[in-house]
Amino acid sequence: MDLPPVVAPPGGCAPDTLVRLVVRNVSPGLAAADPRAQPRLMYRRSSIYMRTEEPPDPSHNGAKMLFIVSEPDIWIVDASTRSGRHSRDAGPQFEVHAPILPNLADLPPAFQALEFGCEAAFVAANAPEVRRTLAWGETTAALHALTAGDQTVALLMDERRGAPLMVSYLRKGKPVWVVRYDEFRADLPEHPELFQPSKSTRIQEAPPPGAPPLITPQAPRPETPLRQPR
């Protein structure tokens, strides 16, 4: 079954092909063994589909959280127990967002538009100039940067593929938030089953407000790239 056509919101992040990426938080001061620093797998397609797979969380009995969005449907699943809950976005906009940078009160509006899966489009619109190039493994990385006041977002892009390699957020010239890409693949064949829970998963409807949670943890950690809608 193919995904139905989607009319993307103007100016929003809406990859026109399936994108797969693996990212990890390598910010200064974050230990490599910290659960927040472990790799996360994400898929994005158009403005309404996203899947995020978290690594096992030893602090929550090895829970392996899976977040699936197929607007307006949202599933939060613990893959370790094959159980989860389903809810529906109340609207009125049905869009999924995957911001790369932390949700800070003074984050410049232009920075807020930087999302996983649309890094090349952000560079083209906001920082097309190559500041410098450097060797990155077997490829060459191009540095692009956008500055607003004392805040800067710097992106290292694979010069040949146009794929992101690293995103850094700096305040007063010092990096405070850094994300590294272990994998980035675009133009993948369609896989609609990615945006539905497996048939073996026990799904319950989301409880009414104030009811006990169905699964633990019931929501992504703050650094988890999942936001819907704006």
Average pLDDT metric: 87
The percent range for helix content is under 10%
Determine the strand fraction and express it as a percent band.
35-45%
- Describe the global form: globular
Architecture overview:
- This protein is mostly beta strands and 230 residues long.
- Helix content is 5%, strand content 38%.
- It has a domain at 109-182.
- The chain has helices spanning 109-112, 119-126; strands at 18-25, 40-45, 49-53, 65-70, 73-78, 83-88, 132-136, 139-148, 151-158, 164-171, 174-188, 202-205.
Give keywords:
230 residues, mainly beta, 12-stranded mixed β-sheet, 5% helix
Brief synopsis:
With 230 residues, this protein is mainly beta. The chain has a domain at 109-182. The chain is built from two helices and twelve strands; from the N terminus they run ββββββααββββββ.
